[in-house]
Amino acid sequence: MFELWKNWMKQTTNALIDRLHREKHSFSDIAQLIREHPDTSISEKTWLGLTYRFYSLHLDNAVLTMETKKTKGNDEHILFISISSSNSAPIVYRSYDEKSDLHETIATPPLTKKTAPVS
Known about the structure:
The protein is α+β, with helices and mostly antiparallel strands. The longest helix is centred in the N-terminal third of the chain and has 19 residues, at 2-20. The chain is built from two helices and seven strands, in the order αβαββββββ. The protein starts with a helix and ends in an 11-residue tail after the last strand. 24% of the residues lie in helices and 41% in strands. The chain has a five-stranded antiparallel beta sheet with strand order 2-3-4-5-6, with helices on one face. A two-stranded antiparallel sheet has the order 1-7.
């Protein structure tokens, strides 16, 4: 019984710590972060004349994925964004979902690295 209680307390503590470290970002901000981050891996596939790009970024505490469809020029239409972390359910944007909004602000695990001041 004590072991169950101890595990429950540990899980609860980890969940609270995770919630306290959350940041606020819009899906469009996350898309920009994924595109511009130097560690992002990108692959491109063309099917039936349509070109799709698949982005993947692994940060310390989160995995970000994005799928886009290439439009005229070098522009892209965002189809899908997913933010996954070990302590919470995935946060997902889908372009075909009426309820999804690229400008919606969501709470995410820490995505930006904070640097300590130089002494």
